[in-house]
User: Which sequence fits this backbone?
DNA sequence: GCAAAAGTGTTTGGATTACACCCATGC
DNA sequence: GCATGGGTGTAATCCAAACACTTTTGC
């Protein structure tokens, strides 16, 4: 390059890149975020989003998968890029730009374990997030907005719900995310076009009429989208 | 930090961060993208998106403003973060992660000028983008999708249109972006709730009945949004 | 039987669609 | 007058909201 920079070209290779992975799950009808307690400086002892430095030869998506796997042992989970945060002073030890990704997981399938950089792990309802290390509160807020937005035009809600769910669980998820109350009959009319697999199974251990169980029909959905016969919309 | 990395902590500070700024404008009813012809290696002579390395003490948004200003002399333009691209091999000279931003400008107010890193500058219709340097084709496609998405729930179309526009210009913009044909009467009913300033002025130099000119009423829009009386939706 | 939630049908009003028609200007 | 696009009204239809009602289970 022959660009006339104020500083030498080589000096530009003095950044570090980290990746924060926001893992969302659904518990008791609330969207929860997986948090870690930092076991290292800076912000040792503070709660934070799990994140790590990206290896020099590592793709961003691979780093996100790695962090997700380390905490949850889950593989083959869809990861979505959120936003990149790069304020020059966001990290006290140097210029660390961080790229945020998020994943939606079925919380029952996760047994989160503390790892090298965390001595404690917990799920926290998204509306009860405490004060976090770095600019992580900003990252959480921005990413949750992006998640909510995506919930309305991509069928990612089914990544949060158990494999077999009731229509009411689906309704409650949207009521929670969009902070509205929905009418049951109208909600069911609205979702009539979503490709579901209707099981011959019902809820158990409820003290009222058990609800029918459904799954999202990914195969049918894919076909419908390919033929432009359907777009998911909530 | 006491994290047990495969490589030393200091070695992680060997990235470079660049920022690519996609500048969109509207010309002859088509969305155009401002492109530069690279005057430096690598990819010297190829067309590319204007971008630059981010200075070590510079915020991402500031870098985006700087690049936009260098090319267009425009200030105080809204910049939107698109996505970050970080494939390890995307830049032949090292690990350069690039963060894409986009800006929507009124094309009449821009006199794009070639700068140190570009010896030629031109507007190219978004559907006629040639093969570009680096992974810039991917960046353009992803960013245009994000732009289209944003057009449907934020009033950013008015950043592309001239200050005073006709309702048909607005309609054509949406027809172009969403690749649909809309009915004139129905379109006007749909936009009735948008806060417009209706001018006592008309189009000139047209050989048919001149259309009335409108502006978007930013002040009224802001008030409506604050009072939750309105959300933009197309 | 009662409580609690599952599940469905009906009515209504507002939005969307298709279509038809009139208006203002340049030539 | 005619071509061209600006601008508007109407009727049919679809969709979403409000509400009422029946069903199934546990206790």
Assistant:
């Amino acid at each position: 390059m022959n660009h006339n920079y104020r500083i030498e070209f080589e000096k530009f290779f003095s950044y570090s890149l980290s990746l924060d992975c926001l893992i969302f799950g659904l518990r008791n009808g609330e969207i929860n975020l997986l948090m870690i307690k930092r076991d290292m400086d800076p912000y040792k002892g503070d709660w934070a989003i799990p994140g790590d430095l990206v290896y020099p030869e590592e793709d961003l998506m691979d780093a996100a998968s790695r962090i997700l796997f380390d905490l949850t042992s889950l593989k083959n989970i869809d990861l979505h890029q959120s936003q990149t945060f790069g304020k020059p002073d966001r990290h006290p030890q140097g210029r660390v730009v961080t790229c945020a990704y998020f994943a939606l997981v079925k919380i029952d399938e996760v047994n989160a374990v503390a790892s090298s950089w965390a001595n404690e792990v917990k799920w926290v309802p998204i509306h009860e997030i405490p004060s976090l290390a770095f600019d992580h509160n900003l990252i959480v807020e921005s990413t949750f907005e992006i998640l909510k937005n995506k919930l309305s035009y991509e069928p990612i809600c089914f990544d949060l719900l158990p494999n077999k769910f009731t229509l009411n669980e689906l309704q409650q998820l949207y009521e929670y995310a969009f902070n509205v109350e929905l009418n049951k009959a109208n909600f069911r009319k609205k979702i009539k076009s979503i490709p579901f697999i209707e099981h011959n199974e019902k809820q158990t251990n409820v003290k009222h009429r058990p609800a029918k169980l459904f799954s999202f029909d990914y195969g049918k959905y894919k076909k419908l989208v390919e033929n432009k016969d359907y777009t998911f919309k909530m």
Remarks:
- Residues 183, 185-186, 189-190, 206-210 of chain B lie near DNA strand C (CB under 10 Å from a C1').
- The interface with chain A takes residues 1-7, 11-17, 40-41, 52-60, 81, 83-84, 86-88, 93-95, 97, 99, 116-117 of chain B (CB under 8 Å).
- Chain B has a mean pLDDT of 92.
- The longest strand of chain B covers residues 16-27.
